[in-house]
User: What shape does this take?
Amino acid sequence: MRVRIVVIGDEILLGRVTDTNSGMLARMLDPLGWKVTGVTVVGDDADRMRTAISNALDDADIVLTTGGLGPTRDDITKQVLAGIFGGGMRHDADVLANAERIMNARGLKINDLTRTQAIVPESATVIQNPCGTAPVMMFSRAEKTLVAMPGVPFETRAVFPASVLPALMERYPSAAGTIEHRTLMLTGIPESSVAEILAPWEDAQPQEVHLAYLPSYGVIRLRVDTIGPRAAELADKAHAELAEILKQYVFATDDVTPAECLLRLLGERGLKVATAESCTGGNIAHTLTLIPGSSASVQGGVVSYANDVKTDVLGVSADTLAAHGAVSIPVAEQMARGAARVCHADVGIATTGIAGPGGATPGKPVGTVCIAVSACGEVVSHTYHFPGERSQVIDRATQSALLMAIRQITR
Amino acid sequence: MRVRIVVIGDEILLGRVTDTNSGMLARMLDPLGWKVTGVTVVGDDADRMRTAISNALDDADIVLTTGGLGPTRDDITKQVLAGIFGGGMRHDADVLANAERIMNARGLKINDLTRTQAIVPESATVIQNPCGTAPVMMFSRAEKTLVAMPGVPFETRAVFPASVLPALMERYPSAAGTIEHRTLMLTGIPESSVAEILAPWEDAQPQEVHLAYLPSYGVIRLRVDTIGPRAAELADKAHAELAEILKQYVFATDDVTPAECLLRLLGERGLKVATAESCTGGNIAHTLTLIPGSSASVQGGVVSYANDVKTDVLGVSADTLAAHGAVSIPVAEQMARGAARVCHADVGIATTGIAGPGGATPGKPVGTVCIAVSACGEVVSHTYHFPGERSQVIDRATQSALLMAIRQITR
Assistant: This one.
């Protein structure tokens, strides 16, 4: 099945909001072997919406639209779809009841504007939206289907797997293909070197095996995609071969982030972790605690931006601070030990550095970050020089700290 | 000028990576009045790439592509562009020198695969990429221009404003339109109620004035866009009128996030802030410290996931914890006071709650979050019930805590 996604909204085109819906939908379609062949973003403009939807219907079996279903005046998708699929508009009592329920649950009374959500095209089959006032609408033309969904990611994420996908699978019962993915997580090697190492291996692969490189800060996600009747067997074989060829760079053989990998290792070993963050400002703790169940291994941490927090809360020596400066290996090591001690943890992860744009000193340019990991009493540390602007330095320092902790625990 | 963006890469279509380049480009084009009329995402597939690029060239004056320029085998954009614009390939010594410089700066030796970056279409004018090995390439057809840029956001963000935009402005000197934006930041009111309040005002506006609602957790960004010779005057008038009509909901009259607004208020008043985070796990500290210059007002904070961190680091009373539970107003208030005290700050912001999916208890469902703000000795607090999954509860609690701190400081 070929799926096209049309994302509607001036706010996306203007770059004020980033579209995350299309990726979310692609990830949910992927296990069925249904392929997203293109994503088109258009503004709240009837002509461009019509062109994008017509092109998508020509090309794909299924078209999914998100956005443009709110009650405000710039939301015109419903009218455009009624124009494309024919017929007039009708009032839907169930949609009104759902909208009233949603507004009541938010402690609000429904107003006239929100009441207009219940006006839907006659050509649409309505799917109730459990999380919002805008109805999800399904349209058919010959063998093709269009589903219009709201733009709020929370609503689409709730309604798509629960109601839309089952309805589509019912409509196309024979279309479940076979596609398999396997992932290796690599660190300590650039993408081009992996590609060079793997060139002979890639040349020897059959057509059904495809390799994708997905690099991010300090990490390459290497994904094997296989398709066809032998997909699972080929994927397992390729995965095992790649894990062997690249073994010195592999930190996980499944699709996990460094944070997920670290939490899993801590859980297996019954270890607790604490953080002491200066330049990463809480991002390491945030990255870990974003993961469900992290409270089993995360004791807590200290964000020690000011020097007196480093000394008074973490117990860093004022003499060490004076002698080496806040951005130094001795301070990072005392922070890591201090975090583990005051938070009663086995592992302490510490960062101190210059995220920029200000703060550089002679010999310590922006991007200089000292990272230390204290694991069961033993401390390792390293000074990094990260490129990029503030948010990138913070992200790279965070991922590097997590990878350092993984290495320290597994060595 | 009409601009179309074509985003290239299987990883985007599969939803493994979210496209942030198109929004970034749109935000940089916006001040010129150059409008992005559509974004198309295609995979690493020559036919689909050709179709998307041809359609974009038909529709727009300028086409920007991102992605597909890496040295690995799935990156085929260069070949496709040579096919579209004609001519063969040539070797570019400057691109090779740049690639060698980049690899050396990373402490790596250039390999044969990376050397292929220096092979470029004869029809392309090369713009050097200061941050990566892939060259930026500019192509012309009649009055139209296509610029191919790398997919790595860091590289595109660096090269676009510095080199690509000036080259485009030089090519189209008369195309600087006049467009103005003004923003109001609102909290404490749903989008539909704002729209209902503003309906008569909107009806009275001239064609050149357009209103956009950009809601996110607990906040609505209300943007006035005006166009034409009177753009600035109309924008100022509309902005002042809206600020008056909505004054009880406005927390800022410019385009700032709650975190930016809070840091500005703290700076103006010479106040220092500290955080005590349980369920938000460091995200409040991270959100604040992501902003350049935040170290002037942020002392630090404590992530007190475990109860013994709440008692031992923040000084929360064990009796209070036993009597009320960790998720309670008394604990939140002691955490806020404790953060301010141990981090030597004037303002303490604390959260304790159940982010889910586990952890719910009778009477305290997932999404229950107690937030307290201690400002100069006085404490306010509130229990919220946030909908959504873990990451949404964390985000909503973070924004609500920042807004509570803004209200407490400005009241």
